[in-house]
Prior knowledge:
Blueprint: H1 8-26, E1 31-43, E2 46-57, E3 63-74, E4 79-84, E5 89-91, E6 95-105, H2 107-120, E7 122-133, E8 141-151, H3 154-157
Antiparallel strand pairs: 1-2, 2-6, 3-4, 3-5, 3-7, 4-6, 7-8
Amino acid sequence: xxxxxxxxxxxxVLACLACTSLAERAYTRPTIAVRxxxxxxxxxxxxxxxxxxxxxxxxxxxxxxxxxxxxxxLADSTEVGRGESAAAFTVPAHDSxxxxxxxxxxxxxxxAAGRDAARDGTVDYRLAGTVTxxxxxxxxxxxxxxxxxxxxxxxxxxxx
Length: 160
């Protein structure tokens, strides 16, 4: 019995699988760490926080970031606010960048944070979110979670 040569379609499928495997090995997931949280403003409609994220790219090519989405929750599980990055940005190859992200908060969230701050001047929080990248493999989501504490300014400690 004669052996038939592989069909072109089978060769194309095998080639695609090999390329995908190579591309996955060529991509290393970036690391994301929260560098800080600070109160930017308090007004009639609520307030605004600024979250600083450090994103490190271990890859030999730049990583374009479409957006970052995130939520800010107090230690007692009270959600203070949610946010999304205002503009796309790129993390350089073999480098890192610090991104300042806005977070609008409601009065209910500010009151809850004020109650926490009234105890010892600090607010314990959990920040969770996703950074969406633009890579040759598509748009993978890179989740991040961080817990921390920030020192509240006197204006937040005095909110009833």
